[in-house]
What we know:
Elements: H1 2-11, E1 19-24, H2 36-53, E2 56-60, E3 74-75, E4 80-81, H3 84-93, E5 103-113, E6 119-121, E7 126-129, H4 143-147, E8 149-159, E9 171-181, E10 184-197
Parallel strand pairs: 1-2
Antiparallel strand pairs: 3-4, 5-6, 5-7, 5-8, 9-10
Helix pairs in contact: 2-3
Amino acid sequence: MKNQLNLMKTTFADKGYPVFIGEYGSIGKTSYDSENEYYRAYFARKLCQLSRKNGCIPMYWDNGYNGVHGFGLFDRTTCEVTQPVIIDAIMEGFGQKASQNSTLMSVRLYVSDSKYWTTIQSDNTARITKKGGTYTLKLKGDKDMLLNITTIALKDCDVELGNHTKSDFTNAQIVIDKVLFNGTDYTVKEIKMMRFSLKKAAFRWI
């Protein structure tokens, strides 16, 4: 992408010819890929950043369909935004400040036990936004480990807000009220909160 847009700059834009990228986008696969929205936003942000850098004007391809394999960003019947994270990514690509819908960081769940002294990690990451929400992190282990959990931690904290290298907030609270273990939901009897700082890589119980 970088090389192709740079070629458009040197061949046309630098010589005074306007460059308009008539269609770009990526299809929705969230129904079978929970991280698809993140990758769609990343693609849109990167293309807009490079287009801006090379003097090109891109136009997103919204085909009006918001279902599986759709390109839609809006519901044309209700006039509601259906893909706020992708829209924020486009705005970020052109140097605009992102709204509270933007992904600020991703974290992965780690669990350690006192019987085997092992640590397992979740199969997926949670992409946390500034507005907060409910997230599901899945991991696999045996029942003995479940009965002897000593530490639950959130690690691999990666900031994903445009070109920023750190988040624009420094701390937050996380409540774990349910654990999905080997496909079964376990309710946490004593709800605890975790307070964390983005300056550190791990989150611990308080």
